[in-house]
Amino acid sequence: MPDDQGPQRRGPTIYDVARECGVAPSTVSRAFSRPGRVNAETAARIRAVAESMGYRANPLARALPTGRTALLALVVSDVTNPFFFEIIRGAEQAATAAGYTVLVSDVQESAQAERQALDRVLPLVEGVVLATSRMSDSTIRVMAKQRPTVMLNRVLTEVPSVVTDNSRGMRRAVEHLGELGHHTVAYAAGPEASWADGMRWRSMREAGYELELKVRRLGRFEPTVRGGLDAAQALAEAPATAVVCYNDLVAIGLMRGLASMGARVPAEVSVVGFDNIFGSDFCSPPLTTVAAPLRALGSHAVRALLRELGHTTPHAVRATVLPAQLVVRGSTATPGRRRHAWTQPGAAAPAQASGSASASTATAFPSASASASASSSSPAPARAAPVRHG
What we know:
Elements: H1 14-21, H2 25-33, H3 40-53, H4 59-63, E1 71-76, H5 83-97, E2 101-106, H6 111-121, E3 127-131, H7 137-144, E4 149-152, E5 161-164, H8 166-180, E6 184-188, H9 195-211, E7 214-218, H10 225-237, E8 242-245, H11 248-260, E9 270-275, E10 288-291, H12 294-310, E11 319-322, E12 325-328, H13 368-377, E13 387-389
Parallel strand pairs: 1-2, 1-3, 3-4, 4-5, 5-11, 6-7, 6-8, 8-9, 9-10
Antiparallel strand pairs: 10-12, 12-13
């Protein structure tokens, strides 16, 4: 039975180039891998013939004797999360400057997918950067024995790491809310396997105790806009005047969920995110957030990995901590008076003043007429001007 797809195309091989040039295949190999050991005129002729034939040397085959592929793996938990955009850019810039190429693997928040991806890429790369890994500590340690490894956004003994100063960032967020007059602050928690989530919640409890504020945790939510919508449901059942979210996506989803229930941000609820991702200043109101130096995280992680590649003897392992700063925008303000009970989308909404915004609106900002109605029923909250706190 004939093959409908016809014969498969075969690219030119090292033997084809050698035959065309009238030299041994080993000479062609040396012309690409060790050009200094081949006559300059012969090497130039071999490269010219190879280019005309479309031949490309196999980098993996050339790397077999030395183990040097000039490839690094960057494993991210969710490539669609804007948190990783600048991290990837910073990692690629640092790798390119050192003569390396970065392979990015998206594991979609799955520890199992992360292990499977690493099983495939470890034979191909010289080192690995694990960005917000969801794998267990023991699994990471085993993997780190196979290839030099750097952790991003997580600290693990015996493995180099680069992290943001979560404690300082959370402290600044809680201080900001306390200064505005909030007395009860909720934390919309992230994934259970997230090291950063645990650090942020612990730092929030410590800051609340020192500043004499009541703090409590709301469930565990996916680190997505959908997770933020779920957090809004949880907040409606146990209201607080301010919420710090695991990340900016959760914060944006929370604001959307609150708006759909008729709650006003920041007049009734102040919202703070984490990371200062691309788009955090596009939402309405613009999001107050703890900014992480995302591009620097990526570049520092790759440079740390390159240093590991240069070590041939045991050495001290340490964590590199990069500073965080609070960026104050329009989603935080002094606590205002709640106008009415929040209503779930689809439920009977309370009567509103003529011209006010619908309680089921999908945006995170009331219309101008709704704002006017709100100002007539309660004093407008004082919004802090945009400012960065180190």
